[in-house]
Amino acid sequence: MSYTVSTLRTMTRSCELMRDRVKSVVFRPEDRKVLDVTFGPTAAAELVGRTPEALAKAEKEGRLAPPKQLGNGRRYYTLEDLTQIRNALNIHPGKAADEDAVVVAVQNFKGGVGKSTITKHFADYLALRGFNVLVIDCDPQASTTTMFDIQPETLIDEERTLGNFLSPRSTFDDFSQAIHDTAWPTIKIVPSSLGLQDAEWDLTATLQEGGQAVRESLQRLRIGIASVTKDFDVILLDPPPAMGFLGLNVMAAATGLLVPVPARQLDYLSTIHFMDTIAENIEILEAHGTPVDYGFIRVVCSTYTPSKPGEADMWKMMKATYANFLLSQPILASEEIKNATQAFRSIYESKPSASHATYQRCRDNLNAVFDEVLQQVREQWPSQSIATGTPDLLGSAAA
Ligand SMILES: Nc1ncnc2c1ncn2[C@@H]1O[C@H](COP(=O)(O)OP(=O)(O)OP(=O)(O)O)[C@@H](O)[C@H]1O
Ligand SMILES: [Mg+2]
Fold first, then answer.
1. In this protein, which residues make up the domain named AAA (predicted)?
2. What average pLDDT does the segment 232-257 reach?
3. Where is average pLDDT lowest: 186-200, 317-331, 376-390?
4. How far apart are CA 381 and CA 100, in angstroms?
5. For ligand 1, what atom is nearest to the CA of residue 117?
6. What whole-number distance in Å separates Cα of residue 86 and Cα of residue 63?
7. Helix axes 115-128, 79-88, angle to 10 degrees
8. Residue 337: CB within 6 Å of ligand 1?
9. Per residue in 39-83, pLDDT tens?
């Protein structure tokens, strides 16, 4: 054995020992996130789509249990209470049982544009409104996984991972077994794991075989999702910031695309390149027997500070460029979001870090943005569609 190989092997053994020590320290079930989110009568009513008066009436008539009360008499509801209210009043915000989940890829090949932040916040937004959500973290960096309180290190010896499901070298093929619970009762996650990068190399290696092997490599995620698509309303995909086999799997599995673009000159220009690359990649997928057809494509301005030099102009340019494909509201850059994500939380899970008014403004802004995305999602379900005829991409194309 050469000196180099034996040195590397020694380092590997040393790393394995350290890994086991890290695992025993990192994975402490008692440290897991506990959700502490409650709602007053007005917020609760809004989230279930009724007026506070309607809820009060149902409580008075005994159709709903009376709400919990704090020591000072203020009434409040928990997430579980909201679920009970929906069940009792027959409120079904999601798809019909026989319909498929809408699979939204939050996709941009550029790094740091807000993909994971949007994925986490949109998942929480949907869960608050009673939707069943599956988040699939396809990025080996695992930021979304961490925000759902799973440490990728804890999955090291786990066989049932996304990486193993995707890898043609692995025999693990029951996608549903890679799904984990989160602190949110109606959000599940397929976490990223350290082996995801290896899986991408294994998928890429099929290029040498060509034909059927490449097609299967491009469709792995799509096939996995198909096996659970009736169980969720919305499936969110958080891809890595690069185009490779993982990114292609995400594009092949998605049924709708949300493209985050910050209001910065460089990101704007790289998005032009991105749109081109998307089109090229769709052609690659088609050439390998994997046609895709998105129900919607929307660009979202993912960080905007109107007072920053140049950003207001960028926002105007984005509106002129993307027209109807751009969500009408930009996501404002906010210390609230920054602070929350640094603590691995969404603002929906955290308390105001500065004034309540600033926090509420940030929340209202995100809600307005996600209301628009939800509208697109709903239109994909025939049972809920308010669309009139022409498919979105053709019908509402930039005028
Ligand atoms: N609206 C916002 N206001 C303030 N900070 C934001 C906002 N959106 C995202 N950020 C911050 O920008 C940084 C990058 O965001 P994020 O990790 O979501 O990007 P990403 O596209 O997923 O990156 P990567 O390509 O590395 O996966 C994070 O620190 C996040 O907190
Ligand atoms: Mg990310």
1. 103-270
2. 95
3. 376-390
4. 8
5. 18
6. 11
7. 50
8. yes
9. 999 999 999 999 999 999 999 999 998 888 888 888 999 999 999
**Nearest atom within ligand 1 for CA of residue 331:** 1
Scanning 191-264, the segments in alpha helix (DSSP H) are: 196-205, 211-226, 245-253
- Residue 348's DSSP bridge partners are none
Q: Alpha-carbon distance 25 to 179, whole Å?
A: 24
Say if ligand 1 is within 6 A of residue 117 CB: yes
Q: How far is the CA of 275 from the centre of ligand 2 (A)?
A: 19
Q: Over range 303-310, report the average pLDDT.
A: 93
Ligand 1 mutation pick, 106, 110, 116, 344, max ligand atoms within 8 A of CB: 116
Atom of ligand 1 nearest to the CA of 332: 1
State residue 321's pLDDT score: 86
- The stretch 132-159 carries a mean pLDDT of 89
- Closest CA to ligand 1's atom 30: 338
Cβ atoms of 21 and 13 within 8 Å: the answer is no
A 10 A CB-CB count for 66 gives 10
**Ligand 1 centre and the CA of 304: distance in Å?**
12
| CB 305 near ligand 1, within 6 Å | no
Q: How many helices (H) and strands (E) does the chain have?
A: 15, 10
> Which alpha helices (DSSP H) does the chain contain, by range?
3-26, 41-48, 52-60, 79-88, 115-128, 143-147, 162-166, 196-205, 211-226, 245-253, 265-287, 311-322, 335-342, 356-378, 392-395
Nearest to 240 by CA among 103, 104, 344, 109: 109
Domains and CATH numbers, the chain: 38-88 (1.10.1660.10), 102-395 (3.40.50.300)
Contact (Cβ atoms closer than 8 angstroms) between residue 199 and residue 231: no
| Pocket lining: 331 vs ligand 1, CB cutoff 6 Å | yes
Res. 389 pLDDT band, cuts 50 70 90: very low
For the cut 70, the answer to whether the pLDDT of residue 359 exceeds it is yes
On the question of pLDDT at 305 being above 90, the answer is yes
Q: How confident is the model at residue 365 (pLDDT cuts 50, 70, 90)?
A: very high
pLDDT at 387 (0 to 100) = 44
21 CA distance to ligand 2 centroid (A)? Answer: 27
Per-chain mean pLDDT for the chain = 89
